[in-house]
Amino acid sequence: MKHFSLLSLGIFLSTCLWAQEINIGFNDSISSELLNETRHLIINLPRDYHQSNKTYPVLYRLDGNIDTFTETLGTINRLAHMDELIPDMIIVMIANTNRNRDMMPTKTSFFQEEPGADNFKSFIEKELIPYIDKRYRTNNKQVLCGQSISALFSIYYFLSSPDTFDAYISCSGGFPDCEQFFISQTDAFLNTELKQSKRLFLTHGNSDFLDPEGIIKKQLIDFSNRLKTKEQLQVQLKIYVDEGHVPFQSLYHALQFVFSN
Hints:
With about 260 residues, the chain is an alpha/beta fold. The chain has one domain (about 25-260): Alpha/Beta hydrolase fold, catalytic domain (Rossmann fold, 3-Layer(aba) Sandwich). It has 8 helices and 8 strands; from the N terminus they run αβββαβααβαβαβαβα. The protein has an 8-stranded mixed β-sheet with strand order 1-2-4-3-5-6-7-8, with helices on both faces. Helix 7 (about 215-225) links the parallel strand 7 and strand 8 (about 235-240). Helix 2 packs across helix 8 (about 250-260) and helix 6 (about 180-190) packs parallel to helix 7. The longest helix is centred in the middle third of the chain and has 19 residues, at about 115-135. It is globular, with a radius of gyration of 21 Å.
């Protein structure tokens, strides 16, 4: 009977343990006057946030949905708690409403609407970042990450307002039918002085189905080479030989680069 009771207790405790809810983040939202809409967020706080008085860096990631959120959280947990290569950080995922409108800074052959990138930038700078800084214990380290078309926005943000974030990550970015626009943006950026050092991390996959002829790859190589002449700027373009669009390792290598000495 004693052995039976112990076995029953073990089964009961195991069942209770498995039945516990696992919380890895929470939903939030902000009513934007600049965009005239409510923007939904997914937020994750570091493991020790409620047991400490520490401040934390913030990763703002575009295209905020459950898939990119779980990928981001897993990457940061690995780098911060297993590899111990980066500090733990607050994650802020920004959900889309009208993705093309928000990400595009100019009209192209496939995008003929009024570009909304500047409005979206203003929302991030004037509404979202102050909202996050007021509600959570942030420090002065902020990173912006985009992928695919939001990577184009991340590059545009970097060129036009480099002082907003400390580092910018562009996973499978490119300049589809707007290369001349970005050449002009790059010219203007190279003629301005950075207030402090910045980092830009770019990625591309050799098997990207959107780049069968290697045009985007060449654009990114030329772009990164031009930027490497800029003082107080560290740029890295990582090309993955056996990867396609938005290589899975992009964020892992990007955060290593951002937080390396």
